[in-house]
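Something for you to look into today, if you have time. What I am after is a single protein written out in full by you. I want to see for myself how the chain folds. Could you add the entry underneath, on a fresh line?
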Amino acid sequence: MALWRPWRYCRISFRRARQLRGVYILIAAFLGSVALHLIFDEASLLDALPSFIRSVLLLLLPGTVVTEPLTSYVNQFIGTTNGGHVFAGATLPFGVVKAVVNSDSKENLGGYVSDGSPIRGISPLHDDGTGGSPSMGQFQVLPMYCSSLSHCPTAESDRKVSLISETIVGSPGYFGTGLASNITAEVTVSHHAALHRFTFHNYSSSSTDIPTILFDLTNDLGHSFHDTGMLKMEFNRFPGTLRTSGSGSYNPSFGDKDYKVHYCIDIPNVNSAGFYTDNHFQPVYIPTSVLTSDQDSGILVSLSPGALHASGNVAYARIGVSWTSPSQACQYAGTEIPTIGEEAFRSTEVSASNAWENILGTIQVDLSGVSNDTIVNFYSSLYRAYISPMNLTGDNPLWHSSEPYYDSYYCICRHLSTSSLCYRHRTVQAEVVRALIDIYRHLGFLPDCRMSLDKGYTQGGSNADSVLSDSYTKGITEGIDWSDGLAAMIKDATVTPPNWAFEGRGGIERRAQLGYVPLDDDTPNGLMGRSASRTLEYAFNDFGIAITADGLGKADITSHYLNASGDWQHLWNPTTQNSGYSGFIQPRWSDGSWHNVDPRYCSPQLKPHGCYLGDAVEFYEASSWEYSFYVPHDMARLVTLMGGQRTFLDRLDALFDLGFHDMGDEPGFLHPFLYNYAGRPDKTVDRVLILLNTYYNTGFGGIPGNDDSGAMGGFVVFSCFGFYPVAGTGIYLISTPLFRTITYPASTPGKSAVITTVNFDSAVRNKYVVSAKLNGVPFTRNWFAHRELFGKGGTLELTLGPAPSTWGTADADLPPSISTSPLSRFS
């Protein structure tokens, strides 16, 4: 089975000790650590030691408190089966390089799949949870034994090699595995580069097999290589080091046009080399370069037997990646990983691990009394929230700008569930917002989906509008021109793009006339359908425009878009009935007549996979049963339309109990918290705990659906926090924390926001909030605003009990809705 860091320390430490003849080093480290402890009495000094040494020290130093690194709780393999499409390899927070093996599996959208499939190679470029089509995966490197370079299997179908499952290891910034070819392959990363370490076991200079490294230019995961690629070989400044650099053109997984990306790989101790094309090998004199348009093209190098023997049969390869040029790829590699060898591998791995430790530690969590599964699930989910988008600042070939540039949004409507984690890392969130606004400046519209420098398909609304409003309500202002931000949002709402399949909105004119996007809308140059779900999303996007305009003092704009945010009501058909309930969101024709869609359609109970792009349906990736609850800015009005609080609560129960709710897709994330709007926060707690225990675990299939760039983990993180964001606003709905105390950095410098509990027992018995205090003052609302806790800092104390109380049940304690509350309450 695949393992992660806790099981890795001993194995790697002993291996390194052997390589360094390290028995004396281990003894010295042991005695030195004892001395340091006796002198300074600092438990933190132990953190740098391998876990087996620390375990011995604990026996000899009673009372010593040793804190495990947070990275030790990250299991990168959760979600690598069952359609999770999780990236399980080595990367940095928001890193460009994401290095992992490419499994020969239909589920390899994230590269590695925990299904026992053989692999094709190890690639530095991947995305996390991309959905229906594989993304990137090019520039594969594969170590192998060959009888000669002219007899090496180079085609993907011929060179596949099985993994030794019990050797598969991962930790933040590292991935390693044993190959059935008697080779161990490991990789660690910097932001733009990867460093490979290959151990050719049992190789001797008398062996007839030749240690070889293959570099594949043309095969990405989707086999989309086209046009002409370039392969150039020369000797680098390091003695005996072969440098290969070049470029390839590929198609994006979910977008328009194509993209070009560049590489630079350095391999020390090369004996001979040449190009291959379609299983034909051509030895070459170096330097040389070739252009290729063939589907199977790359480079083969044999390693020097003497040099390999002298290094303990360990070889290295360093690859840099750039979206601008091969020379930039070489510069990134040389700057970020200046040397190639064992020390470079160790230092790069340590730097990567430290980067993850720092960002995971932004939020401080009291882990006492919490099960290991909960801790692992929490930190693994939090970790995945930082994988995407990738920070391409300074390496954007499309335009020159002093603004940041981020890429890989799959898609922004999916990110709404995790964008409210912005308070954890305000600087990055500000950069993302600036990058989105800069895309608008140069391309004319905010993106809804974007990957590999290309425009991606719009799945629903113009949801960057809601990401911007989400950030604005949370006081994210660093370097952001909010005048341009508001202008970009308004353009989304008022100007039809040349091709609204990839940005902006469709049906703008018809909606302005009718109050909804009609089923027979004929706006050209887009993907028809989704008229009902797009109307709902456009209405919520307009609410985001209103809340941002209100903060900027634009009264007329605020009034207009606040009014437009109520357009969802035009699709409420009170006569539609299903499963004993009346009133559902339904599409309409332009003449006002209804088009009745079975409210169960596209739920887990009826055609669950029938509502994707191109399916000519009026809801996207969810049923009318789910979408009929999607009015997060005016739930009070929705409760009234459904017949009042009692019927609303019964109907919400029916959504889950009758199997219409889909936990495996983002439209269903907010639903378990909606009980708060009808004064039953206790039912929110019950439902959240049921969903966590039913659909999430620490196994390979431990998430209920495609990870969508960390969105699935976002539900886990917020559920553990004990609140959930109403994305696009500054509102959080309270449930019950699964940690005793959680400390967050506040917006105000030097201040912290703390959520703490009384009677905490991991929600085993005391799972309901029975009373609360905010900064020592009794607090009865079942929600709170960002500004009153995360903005200025403070402490929210939640007292827990085994049975529900009246806390949070009064009308005055319910979350705000625009039909009952002023707009100011949303921020």
Observations:
- The two ends are 47 Å apart (CA to CA).
- The first helix runs from residue 8 to 19.
